[in-house]
Amino acid sequence: MATHAIVTHEKWLAARKKHLAKEKEFTRLREQLSKERRELPWELVDKEYLFEGENGRETLADLFEGRGQLVIYHAMFNPETAGEHTTYTKDAPCFVCSFWMDNFNGVTVHLNHRDITMAAVSLAPYAKLAAYKKRMGWSFPWVSSGGSDFNFDYRVSFTPDELSTGKVDYNYRMDPFPMSEAPGISVFLKQDGQIYHTYSAYARGLDMLNVAYHYTDLVPKGRDEDEVSAGEWVHRRDEYPD
Predict the structure, then answer these.
(1) Residue 125: CA atoms inside 13 Å, Cβ hemisphere, count?
(2) Rounded CA separation 61/199 (Å)
(3) What pLDDT, on the 0 to 100 scale, is given for residue 232?
(4) Ramachandran region of residue 53, left (φ > 0), alpha (ψ -120 to 50) or beta?
């Protein structure tokens, strides 16, 4: 850790107040950005998607569980393409996605009381999702989109033909991507019998959803990822070395 300035309380307080002004400006900008996000146009979901979950076959409408808003975390998990160079295996989702899902598992009850259902979706068969969910002790719904176009339409899964071109349409641009699965989040609204897609974010756009990162941003060492990415230090919760 680099040598850091050590000062008197008076100087510490002056520096803190100066930084507080920037934090308040950031808060105002964040609130404005959130307001503009909510004002973005919606698109009608007019395609039928089927999922496999705890209750058997379910539609996108079923995933709302009677609420008006649905947030879906796209978790990377496809046993058919799992291999040495993927962050997911044949029996477990991406370990970084697992880190993200740990972060929202405990808040779903609060979201439910704000008319929001939180769910995860992956291509893996439901039996594999259920087994890993039990292993982690998670309570949120996690369903399989296997056999549907859902993952491909929302740009978190890519066909072999797409991958063969060297670039895929991910995060609103064409870029190389090393795997058939990618992380993302999508938001839907159900109103007057119709379902609308209101928002999707990918890559670094998911950082704001990771509570652990907000805490690491507060401490002196920060995320401690200057030389490495999260993929080089994060483990599945029960796989950290002693």
Answers:
(1) 7
(2) 17
(3) 78
(4) beta
Phi, psi of 151 (to 5 degrees): -60, -40
**Which residues, including other chains, have CB under 8 Å from residue 169's CB and lie 6 or more apart?**
155, 162
Crossing angle for the helix pair 95-105 and 126-136, nearest 10 degrees?
60
Torsion of CA 56, 60, 186, 101, to 10 degrees: -20
Query: What would the DSSP string read from start to end of 174-241?
Result: EE--SSSB--EEEEEEEETTEEEEEEEEEGGGGGGG-HHHHHHTTSTTTT--SSS-GGGT---TT---
pTM over 0.85: yes
Distance CA 2, CA 61 (A): 53
pLDDT digits over 88-115, tens only? Answer: 999 999 999 999 999 999 999 999 999 9
| Residue 24 amino acid letter | K
Q: In a 3-state reduction of DSSP, which class is residue 11?
A: helix
Give the amino acid at 157.
S
Paired with 51 in beta bridges are 58
Structure tokens at 168: 């895929």
36-53: burial string, b at 16+ Cβ within 10 Å, e else: eeeeeeeeebeeebbbbb
